Amino acid sequence: MTIESCNLPVERTQRFLPLLLVLFVGSGYSALVYEIVWFQLLQLVIGSSAVSLGVLLGTYMGGMCLGSIGLPRIISPKRHPLRVYSLLELGIGIIGVAVLFGMPYIDRLYTANVGHGFAGVWLRGLVCAVCLLPPTILMGATLPAVARWVETTPKGVSWLGLFYGGNIAGGVFGCLLAGFYLLRVHDVAVATYAAATVNGAVALMGLGLARLTPHRAPAPVSPRTCAEPKACPQSAGCLTAVAGLMVWPVYVVIALSGMSALGAEVVWTRLLSLLLGGTVYTFSIILAVFLVGLGIGSGIGSLLSRVVALPAPASPDASRGGGPRIALGCCQMILTAAIAWTAYMVAKSLPYWPIDPSLSTSPWFNFQLDLTRCAWAVLPAAILWGASFPLALAAVASRGGDPGRLVGGVYAANTVGAIIGSIGFSMLVIPWLGTQQAQRLMIGLSAVAAFLMFSGSGHLFCHREHSPGDSLRRELRGISLFFYLCELCVLCGFLTLVALLAWSVPPTPWGLIAYGRFVATYGGRLAPGITEEKDIPSGSGKPDIFCTYMGEGLNGSAVVTMSKAGVRCFHSAGKVQASNEPQDMRLQRMLGHISALLHPKPRSVLVVGCGAGVTAGTFILHPSIKHIIICEIEPLVPKFVAPKFKKENYDVVNDSRVEVIYDDARHYIRTTRRKFDIITSDPIDPWVKGCAALYTQDYYKMCKEHLNPGGVVTLWIPLYEGNSDTVKSVIATFFSVFPNGLIWSNDIKGEGYDAVLFGQAPAQAAMPTQINVDELQRRLSRCIGNESVAQSLAEVGFDSAIDLLATYAGQAPDLQEWLRDAQINTDRNLHLQYTAGMWLNCYLGREILAEIIQYYRFPEELFIASDQSKEALRRALEGLQSSQ
Prior knowledge:
The chain has 30 helices and 15 strands. The chain has 4 domains: 10-218, Growth Hormone, Chain: A, CATH 1.20.1250; 235-458 and 497-508, Growth Hormone, Chain: A, CATH 1.20.1250; 510-576, no CATH class; 582-770 and 811-861, 3-Layer(aba) Sandwich (Rossmann fold). The chain is an alpha/beta fold. Strand 6, helix 19 and strand 7 form a beta-alpha-beta unit. The strands form 3 sheets. The chain has an 8-stranded mixed sheet, sandwiched between helices. The chain has a 5-stranded mixed sheet with strand order 1-2-3-4-5.
């Protein structure tokens, strides 16, 4: 459709194009807010495992693809494009609000019918389809709908690219606003209403604009026939032949571009989140930088497509594909170098910038550094991917064609490639081949796309009997062999360059996985390569750290290190998760033994997270326990990490009583019908994106519902890497479900390090927790068969029941005043991941423990003991208070 075909003055229509660009900015803002909110809500229902996320992302992008293909085929061109666009926006807003209110019902329906294996995956897909397909189909249809309002001339196609770029620009704003304000300060409801309000405003403005610009359907265009179509595939009269013979490489190339772009987003987000800390802010920054690059590239590509696609004055109807195709091919060619650049920056440069994030007193300073580092690494490739879309539009456009079908086809091809790239790289390529080979594959995909584009644009000397310059063309055809040889040399040089670039991609350094944002501070302490433990030298002096295992799995990466001093550590998410150092061993033994000893006779245990296996292994020593379930999201950990700590965890994964389930722990607890005497967890960082879902009031209620009468829940809480508000939020949320909960401190010489929260489901209604000190001591006595339990406690400094109970730091009733203003973390707000992520680099453990101790009093009603035992316990606890 052209502007002229609508019988409207060109100036009258063109003057509204900038306003329409603004509307697309609003559409992009709403779309990204919805995406963040929906992903957060649906992950709470179907889990956060790689399978769940793959189903979720595939459904979301599949809906976009269906919408882009379907609208031009379902909606007649006679409909006013702006009115159609406005109704689509209105529908998106209505469905967005409906998803918010309908999610609890979908949650209950899913929980009641979920299964495992293929049936479980099918049901997850069904839930995602019900929630995501209706709105995402409408989202995917918006650009093809508006495309019918512009002309398929170079200028019109460039405006389509600008609309696409404006949509991305709005997405950047929505991503940052949702991540840094709406969800941090408010909750998913406020974020949804904000997005729906913008949808409504865009719809009203679109309807008003439609009234100002009456629409008439374009008259059908009948392409002229050519006397010799086979001899003249590029003549003005052979647009149909060109479309049939020459358009398909463009669709393949834009699909490959989408595949490599989303694959890169998966790989680089995974690596950069290690470097910057896996908080919600890190993911928002990475996504925003990627979108900024796409937006900049889209603007450049739109302007470039308008320049290179100008037809010759003598042939105004000529096909315009040659110039944009060459430009598109150049983009893919340069992408091979841009991908290699990012791979080198992420592995060899950024980790070693002299940055110590703990030096900052404000999180905003670190955010600025994070933004700079992301832009330095990611922007070049993102700009090129962004430029590819408008160039692809220009490459397939022809006068008189339906702009809706033009945009819908290119957008659908790009989206199909993106679906394959995101799911394929996250679920297959990285777990099978690793991030190094994944980036080499991305370079290969871009090289293939460049080759296809140039080979599809190679008919430069087409014979045209009825056009001027025939004698010159015949002369050129006579020396075509020379040009083909030149093309062959260029191709060989390009393939050589691609091979060199792919070979130059460095492996992911194990230090990045192990120490993340602090890798630069370790300097020369990290020994290169991976070695066997038997080859590690011992001795004093500067302690070198060696990697004894490194693996990249479905849901994360894992490293096991060993130092000359004999310290063995398990690393994930860019930090130490467990080790055999005294303070960590003490914490993991406390999680296990406090849970088992304060229950009268535990039989079944659920451990959330395997880690080094020490927490789970502690339960093996208690003879009454018959069944231990370890729920671990990453298969590498039980299979390869836990065996490295066989001595410390008593070879837990090979014990006959142990069952390992690979699933998101929250999803497992929600869907299992089993009940347990003990539910505990290995240390799980609340600041890591997604992990705050294991610290919500709703999650604790689920745990409580899955406890047998008298069952206990224990939870690790860090006092380091956070501030007082973060710790208060964790404790207050836990105590809101367990009103008689307890805190046990794992301090280092009186300085706060971490702690254990303890809650109990009463055997009888309103029955408070009580601890019989003398009975506990008898259970630990070596003369009744508990020698191994006593020995396990003695190894970490607990020689008696008094020593263990002396870690008591407070209880819920005493801390009500301190927790009065604490933010309760719920599924609807997940505030904890925002507060914890904001203060990740703060180390205030000593101050936080001192605040807790201020409210200490000796709990006479909690401890039942003889006068002698109670007095001994009182003196031991007073020693803790005096150390503060």
